[in-house]
């Protein structure tokens, strides 16, 4: 009969048992039974860690304690090895290179306690920084050496500062960004070392940067176009082939294209291949919007009350990239219908517009119905706008308790604006200057001779790390024999947001019957201090002064002051202000917000 493995098993098992007894070796099952668990179901474990407050959050956020009890010494040893390895790595990122990590035992009634005790040791400090340059920037030239000196001075992680890995990486990234900002688009860090001396707790930093060659703008290569021509995009470029590379010009080029409604996404970059540095191609990637769009909107302003609007746009009118725009906007104090056609900028930075508007207003017991047609020529650069308008308008003026009249004027307006700000949405430093001059003559389709002048100046100054001081001033004067026969657009009223808070919108002017109408002179100013409590929330205190009148002899400025709440929204800062009119003693809220849907 053939013997199977089962037969051998039953024959050999007694013999194997006798051998184990002879050699004094216990079976495996017996060995396991002698190992006593440190924790079992009747004696639950609790694992905690102890560390100074300066590192406790770092460890608790990135080091994971075991989910299950450590059942024996082997599990303890595995855990403490992992703890030392991971916590050592975490503390090294904060400059602690000689920590001690121990596992303490204790017990409380039926609970076995394990405590991971972390002592970070002394924090290492930066003992010195060496920044070396290679490439064209390292050439012994006075301008280049001056720039190198400036780059070294701007290095963020200074000697004597605590060493942190995040600060080290940020300092290197900022250095590289500063170099690439001008001329050297392909600059790179070819070596960086942080040499730690654990005995002295000092870290020596060394960075070697290769600037590469200086870059110059080449041809613009546009992709993603279907309905539009490349030349229509190239006209927006603030540089020409052969100009020295500047990253801020690329950013401005991208931002300018993003502002026109023809495209849903825009990406502008330079080809940083060093072999093309003498004429580096500029790569523009576009995604076109649908050429026709209908939009609805709603909002509220303490100047004009609630608002609803509907807008229709055709961004490729007559298949010539013309922007046809029409808007019906209904506000509590003002109702407007507008339609217009705008060209894109041409190669000379000039844009033309043709528009028509029908508007009714009812503000401070003055009702006006205005019809106008305008032809506009605009010259637009990175920080300047010049505009010339030819405007014909007809206005029906109906003051409550006063004399109604119909006014016609054909006016020529000139407008100049210059701005230099650090951020167009959330300004912290910079200035804006604006001048307007316009007039009409009885000899050319107008009821009255007049010349209107207006100037505005705004300044922002940073205070400390977050705060901002804002100062604004404006003044206007209309030269004419009388205010009668002049459209309200060429006269002045004050009060409300961006004027004198604490007073209703356009409530400061000339009384005519029961209404407040525009006068020939105006001046207002503001001083405002904003303290940002958090990144997006802040508070402001302010004082406004100003008024409007029919002459400087009758000019009597009003004062408003108050406090407000600020929120940095994606569309710019929104304000909720509570202001008191000094002359009236009345408190008013001033608020403006809009939501599109």
Task: Characterise the protein shown here.
By secondary structure, this protein is an alpha+beta fold. The protein has five domains: about 5-35, no CATH class; about 45-120, membrane protein fhac (Ubiquitin-like (UB roll)), CATH 3.10.20.310; about 125-210, Ubiquitin-like (UB roll) (Roll), CATH 3.10.20; about 215-290, membrane protein fhac (Ubiquitin-like (UB roll)), CATH 3.10.20.310; about 290-595, membrane protein fhac: a member of the omp85/tpsb transporter family (Porin, Beta Barrel). It is about 15% helix and about 45% strand. Strand 21 (about 510) and strand 22 form a beta hairpin. The longest helix has 21 residues, at about 75-95. The model is unreliable at about 1-45 (pLDDT under 50).
């Amino acid at each position: 009969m053939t013997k199977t493995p089962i037969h051998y098993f039953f024959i050999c098992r007694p013999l194997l048992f006798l051998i184990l007894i002879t050699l004094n070796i216990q079976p495996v099952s017996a060995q396991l039974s002698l190992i006593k668990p440190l924790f079992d179901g009747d004696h639950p474990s609790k694992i905690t860690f102890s560390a100074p407050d300066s590192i406790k959050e770092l460890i608790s956020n990135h080091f994971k304690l075991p989910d299950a009890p450590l059942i024996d010494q082997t599990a303890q040893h595995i855990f403490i090895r992992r703890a030392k390895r991971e916590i050592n790595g975490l503390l090294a990122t904060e400059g602690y290179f000689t920590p001690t990590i121990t596992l303490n035992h204790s017990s409380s009634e039926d609970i076995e306690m394990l405590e991971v005790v972390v002592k970070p040791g002394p924090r290492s400090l930066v003992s010195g920084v060496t920044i070396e340059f290679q490439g064209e920037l390292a050439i012994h030239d006075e301008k280049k050496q001056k720039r190198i000196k400036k780059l070294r001075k701007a290095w963020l992680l200074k000697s004597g500062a605590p060493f942190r890995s995040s600060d080290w990486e940020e300092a290197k990234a900022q250095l590289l960004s500063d170099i690439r900002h001008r001329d050297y688009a392909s600059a790179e860090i070819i070596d960086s070392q942080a040499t730690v001396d654990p005995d002295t707790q000092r870290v020596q930093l060394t960075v070697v940067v290769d600037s590469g060659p200086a870059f110059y703008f080449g041809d613009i290569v546009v992709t993603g176009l279907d309905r539009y021509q490349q030349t229509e995009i190239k006209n927006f470029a603030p540089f020409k082939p052969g100009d020295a590379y500047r990253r801020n010009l690329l950013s401005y080029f991208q931002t300018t294209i993003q502002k026109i409604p023809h495209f849903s996404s825009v990406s502008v970059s330079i080809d940083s291949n060093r072999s093309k540095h003498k004429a580096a191609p500029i790569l523009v990637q576009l995604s076109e919007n649908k050429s026709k769009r209908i939009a609805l909107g709603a909002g509220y302003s303490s100047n004009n009350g609630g608002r609803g609007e509907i807008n229709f746009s055709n961004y490729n009118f007559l298949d010539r990239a013309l922007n046809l725009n029409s808007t019906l906007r209904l506000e509590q104090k003002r109702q407007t219908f507008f339609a217009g056609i705008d060209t894109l900028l041409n190669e000379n930075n000039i844009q033309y517009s043709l528009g028509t508007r029908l508007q009714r207003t009812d503000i401070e017991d003055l009702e006006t119905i205005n019809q106008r047609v305008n032809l506009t020529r605009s010259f637009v650069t990175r920080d300047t706008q010049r505009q010339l308008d030819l405007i014909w308008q007809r206005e029906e003026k109906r003051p409550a308790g006063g004399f109604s009249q119909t006014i016609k004027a054909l006016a020529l307006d000139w407008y100049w604006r210059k701005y230099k700000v650090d951020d167009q949405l959330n300004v912290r430093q910079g200035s804006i200057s604006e001048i307007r001059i316009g007039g009409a003559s009885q000899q050319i389709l107008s009821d009255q001779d007049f010349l209107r002048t207006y100037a505005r100046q705004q300044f922002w100054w940073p205070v400390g790390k977050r705060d901002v001081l804002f100062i604004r001033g404006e003044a206007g004067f209309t030269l004419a024999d009388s205010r009668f026969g002049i459209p309200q657009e060429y006269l002045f009223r004050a009060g409300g947001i961006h004027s004198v808070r604490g007073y209703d919108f356009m409530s400061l002017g000339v009384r005519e019957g029961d209404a407040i109408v525009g006068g020939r002179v105006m001046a207002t100013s503001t001083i405002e201090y904003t303290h940002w409590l958090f990144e997006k929330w802040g508070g402001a205190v302010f004082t406004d002064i100003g008024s409007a009148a029919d002459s400087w002899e009758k000019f009597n400025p009003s004062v408003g002051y108050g406090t407000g709440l600020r929120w940095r929204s994606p569309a710019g800062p929104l304000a909720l202000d509570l202001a008191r009119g000094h002359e009236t003693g009345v408190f008013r809220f001033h608020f403006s917000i809009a939501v599109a849907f």
